[in-house]
Amino acid sequence: MSLGQQLAPHLPLLRRYARALTGSQVEGDRYVRAALEAIVAAPDEFPRDVDARLGLYRTFQAIWQSTQWDDAEATDESGSDQESIARRRLSRLTPLSRQALLLTTVEGFPPEDAAYLIGEDAARVAELVAEAVQEIERQTRTRVMIIEDEPLIAMDLEQIVRDLGHDVTGVAVTRDEAVALAMEDRPGLVLADIQLADDSSGIDAVKDILAEFSVPVIFITAFPERLLTGERPEPTFLITKPFQRETVKATISQALFFDEATVPA
């Protein structure tokens, strides 16, 4: 099997990681392309002593870490509004702790693998994750709307949201309910399932809501590969079913990390 064939199944998940790390589809995909170009340019330098996914993320990490210091030195006026928000967050949270958080709780790497990827030991990874969770939770508080037609899953999501210190505006089970609830009580974050009770789409519900006002959205689906094809507009934040509670917590924190409404004064 060629190296390209080995890497292909892991690209959708790497795009998810890159987008969560940067808070941007465009920027995240740009870093993924840079990593792939580096592999194509020097295939002999690709890590062969680890599995393909770990080697792919390692190459991405090298690209990311080589550029983050230049990005951190840029002024807020030189970038987008989203980049300005990120810089204000990053002044309170080190990039390394965010990487440790995402790699372990969202991407599912064990601490030993995350340590390999960021150049630390496993004990330090655990410390970084704890620091990141505490600081992001302190920085971000909002009101969350849940679009989910499975009662038990909705209850679980609601509990997770409240455990993080957020309020829940309500739970909608159809597209029409979701839009009506959003218009009645505007949320600061939306958690949206893809397939809803009346065979309507959570994606369409979100499109209707975003046509009225801007709000960060996290999609939840059992089939993430259907939304991470690289062939159409794709979600920045995506959770795979069945999900782990820590994954939901980390993704909520990351989505709010880039949201202007929750930036501390």
From TrEMBL:
The protein's UniProt keywords, in alphabetical order, are: Phosphoprotein
Q: Which InterPro entries match?
A: Bact_response_regulator (IPR050595), CheY-like_superfamily (IPR011006), PhyR_sigma2 (IPR053866), PhyR_sigma4 (IPR053867), Sig_resp-reg_PhyR (IPR014605), Sig_transdc_resp-reg_receiver (IPR001789)
Give the organism's phylogenetic lineage: Bacteria, Pseudomonadati, Pseudomonadota, Alphaproteobacteria, Sphingomonadales
Name of protein: Response regulator
- GO biological process assignments: phosphorelay signal transduction system
Domain Response regulatory, first and last residues per copy: 143-256
Modified positions (4-aspartylphosphate) are: 193
